Amino acid sequence: MYGDTSIQKPMKIAEPTSEEQAKLEARFQQMVDDDIKIEPQDWMPDAYRKTLVRQMSQHAHSEVIGMQPEGNWLTRAPSLRRKVILLAKIQDEGGHGLYIYSAAETLGTSREDMCKALRDGKAKYSSIFNYPALTWADIGTIGWLVDGAAITNQVALSKGSYGPYCRAMIRICKEESFHQRQGYELLLSLSKGTAEQKAMLQDSVNRFWWPSLMMFGPNDADSPHSAQSMKWKIKKKSNDQLRQEFIDATVPQAEFLGITLPDPDLKWNEERGHYDYGEIDWEEFAHVIKGNGPCNKQRAAAYTKAHEDGAWVREAANAYAAKHAAQAAE
Ligand code: BYC
Fold first, then answer.
1. Which atom of ligand 1 has the smallest separation from the CA of 154?
2. Does the beta carbon of 229 sit less than 6 angstroms from any atom of ligand 1?
3. Does the chain have fewer CB atoms within 10 Å around its N or its C terminus?
4. Which of 51, 54, 55 to mutate to test the pocket of ligand 1 (most atoms within 8 A of CB)?
């Protein structure tokens, strides 16, 4: 039923002795080391389950909250073609949220509980969605940089250890790839446009560059969850590795657009075979994830309002399901 919280919790069985627990843990880690996917029915450490629920719910929430900055531009898209593309992209994001909530439910939590945690301000979502989409160029930049950063991360996540999460990531990456390309194509047209359009493109990239780099999370040395998540192969690559991969792939694309990236320290390092880049403003990152970014309050209020406005739909769906269940029982 819609909004039903009675999802099956994992069956309670007798607590294993510490010797049995050690054996279970060793067997679990061996499966992870051998790249055998962990499936919902397999034994797993409580902390592994908890880490996955934390990360997957944050991920699903990011997809759903991420619909807001773009939704803001649907009625102002400059052509029917652009409107159709944007509408399809936003619908995909709602779908991505659903795939990941469903994958997380296999761990014994419920979508309703995860969404309630978001409404109560107890669950996080990606920092990037607390920045506003101020101009039409931002729609292209979100596709190019935000979806680009998300794919870099998600391709690595799709090779992780938990089967349902990885399988959701494979499909999501295919759709994100379309999102990234539509963004870049939009920016390419602006780059060939008027002086005003070129300036709008540059201004947008100036605002989104650093927040996009923050999407990968804190530096490895300051990332409390990384070491354990890498051991469990929930994360296959570290925050800094992925950030570097994203920068290396993106700089040539910026050059092709004829724009600059707002980092004076950004330069190719022949010895490392990578681009060097400047220090991220971690104070700003901390500020945003604590709820004080430019749009945190607005995003939370819109999310809660949508939930409240949808109450009648859930009620009607439940009444309809109850009517059919009663008819079937007759
Ligand atoms: N924003 O130890 P760390 C999309 C938190 S949407 C907020 O490195 P972890 C799209 C982190 O949660 C897809 N919080 O953590 C949609 C932790 O806090 P707690 C977005 C962040 O989990 C619409 C603390 O900082 N992708 O594509 O090992 C339009 C310490 O960090 C952030 C995902 O959601 C952040 N940026 O690694 C367009 C990816 N970074 O929980 C596009 C899924 C860190 O201890 N998530 N924190 O309170 C992940 O891959 C990992 O969770 C992270 C962080 C790499 C983000």
1. 39
2. yes
3. C
4. 55
Nearest CA, atom 51, ligand 1: 55
* Residue appearing with tokens 């990037």: 128
- What helix, strand, coil percent values describe the chain, rounded to 5? 70, 0, 30
Pocket test for ligand 1, best of 53, 57, 124 (most atoms within 8 A of CB): 124
211 alpha-carbon distance from chain centroid = 14
Tens-digit pLDDT profile for residues 92-145: 999 999 999 999 999 999 999 999 999 999 999 999 999 999 999 999 999 999
Looking at residue 5, its pLDDT comes to: 45
Q: How far apart are CA 323 and CA 227, in angstroms?
A: 51
Ligand 1 midpoint to CA 122 (Å): 14
Residue bearing the CA closest to ligand 1, atom 23 = 66
**Whole-prediction pTM:** 0.94
Compute how many other C-beta atoms are within 10 angstroms of the C-beta atom of residue 26.
Answer: 9
CB within 8 A of 166, min separation 6: which ones? 37, 157, 158, 159, 160
Does ligand 1 come within 6 angstroms of the Cβ of 104?
A: no
Q: What is the SS3 string spanning 187-233?
A: HHHHHCCCHHHHHHHHHHHHHHHHHHHHCCCCCHHHCCCHHHHHHCC
**Distance from the first to the final alpha carbon of the chain:** 19
CA triple 200-129-303, angle to 5 deg: 125
Q: Which protein residue has the closest C-alpha to ligand 1 atom 25?
A: 217
Joined together, the tokens standing for residue 313 give: 């739909």
